[in-house]
Design a protein that fits this description.
By secondary structure, this protein is mainly α. It has a single domain (3-185, 204-402), classed as Up-down Bundle (Growth Hormone, Chain: A), CATH 1.20.1250. It has helices at 3-24, 30-37, 41-69, 71-95, 100-115, 118-128, 132-161, 167-186, 199-244, 250-274, 279-302, 306-333, 337-366, 370-391, 397-405. Helix 4 (71-95) runs antiparallel to helix 8. Residues 406-415 have low confidence and may be disordered.
Length: 415
């Protein structure tokens, strides 16, 4: 991988980092926002939910546009929109007496921007490299940046809120501007061939992809959703447990939340570097990751004292971390460039659904008892293990050799 490509990856890695910070950074600040604005818990939860719902709806559209118009042409304006959304929320919090609806409007803008920013990174990396092992390494780096944002966000958000409750909003346009500059000046998109397909023909080709490869594509969509559902649900549960059971809050709570996320981030980086273009290894690593995730929650069910809880959640973070670059690589390397943005956008949307569904579901389960958290987390993780085991089937040696000679064919055997 050349030095120029490394700079491209560095710039692209800023995009998921910025998007994650712009959302997750607000989670530890929500109690302060609720208190300052005098709003209900449901209203304050909309600050996160509205962002996710808007992104879920628009991600497939952004993926389609990136296939038709170009990745960078979609990504840069969307980063600017995300920054403007943060600025609207920040300005309203500072200058308006009753800013709640303006904050929500700003979060809607952020959701629009996020839909065309972070999800487009995956297909763009697939476009930039010819070698599958370079694609895997690049995707591992961006997953590391994504998780790095999750590691830093509770710490940064809690720290900023100790000064002024709305200060985290102001950092969103700042981070977005940095990412815009990096992407605009450092990322050189591969030259796009002149598009001869009509829209009807394009969607016909996308339909053919789902018809021929739907079995493994739907599996990756489902597993990506499950991983994000468990991850964000467990983070919500851990945050609540640290505060209510152990009376730990503020920056200290942010640091403790960051421990399993740091394990996730490191394991993502290592996994992306090691899997190369070996599809069989990708499947085995994903199986191992989902198995480790399921076993961690079985162990927590029987021993959930504080140190054991944190230790087992570190193991679950490793399980998620090693799996994510494998899923990214399987779907990116298995789809032709012309439809890659559209197909991977469905995967990104499913991950956002998991993010949006995790916290409210786990909040409901917590009312039923901690044991329900462990049963649901372990059960869904086991479901992901079974799906990967039976529905993702890498090609045999002969098929893999054929694929190297015919680069346009899909890399996975759906049968």
């Amino acid at each position: 991988m050349g030095q120029k490509k490394k700079l491209d990856l560095l710039a692209l890695s800023s995009v998921p980092l910025v998007m994650t910070l712009g959302n997750s950074m607000l989670i530890p600040v929500l109690p302060s926002i609720e208190k300052e604005l005098g709003i209900s818990s449901f209203q304050v939860s909309l600050i996160i939910t509205v962002y996710s719902i808007v992104a879920i709806i628009l991600i497939p559209i952004a993926g389609y546009l990136s296939d038709r118009l170009g990745r960078k042409l979609v990504m840069v304006p969307c980063l600017i929109i995300a920054g403007l959304g943060g600025a609207v929320s920040a300005w309203a919090s500072w200058k308006i007496n009753d800013p709640f609806m303006w904050i929500i409007f700003g979060r809607v803008l952020q959701g629009i921007g996020s839909a065309g920013a972070a999800p487009v990174v995956i297909p763009l990396i697939g476009d930039m490299f010819e070698k599958d092992e370079e694609i895997s390494a690049g995707l591992g780096l961006t997953e590391t940046a994504n998780t790095g944002g999750k590691v830093l966000s509770p710490i940064i958000g809690a720290f900023l809120a100790t000064f002024i409750w709305f200060l985290p909003f102001w950092f969103i346009p700042f981070f977005s501007l940095v990412s815009v500059l990096l992407v605009f000046f450092l990322v050189k998109s591969p030259k796009k061939k002149k598009e001869k397909q009509s829209i009807k023909e394009f969607f016909h080709q996308v339909g053919k992809v789902f018809k021929s490869s739907g079995r493994w594509l739907y599996t990756i969509f489902a597993v990506g959703c499950i991983i994000m559902f468990v991850l964000f649900g467990v983070l919500f549960y851990l945050s609540d447990t640290l505060e209510k059971n152990y009376h730990i809050n503020g920056v200290t709570k942010g640091l403790l939340l960051a421990i399993p996320l740091l394990a996730l981030s490191i394991s993502s980086y290592v996994s992306g570097k090691k899997i190369g273009n070996n599809k069989h290894l990708m499947k085995m690593v994903t199986l191992g990751g989902m198995g480790l995730l399921a076993v961690s929650f079985v162990a927590i069910r029987f021993q959930h004292e504080f140190l054991f809880l944190l230790s087992f959640l570190v193991l679950s973070g490793i399980g998620i971390g090693v799996s994510l670059p494998c899923l990214d690589a399987l779907i990116t390397e298995g789809i032709e460039k012309e439809q890659r943005g559209t197909i991977t956008s469905f995967y990104s949307a499913m991950r956002f659904i998991g993010v949006a569904a995790g916290p409210p579901t786990y909040a409901f389960l917590m009312g039923k008892g901690d044991h329900m958290i462990y049963y649901v987390s372990g059960g869904t993780s086991l479901l992901a293990f079974v799906l990967v085991l039976f529905f993702i089937r890498p090609p045999g040696k002969e098929e893999e050799e054929k694929d190297k000679k015919n680069k346009g064919e899909h890399l996975l055997n759906p049968t």
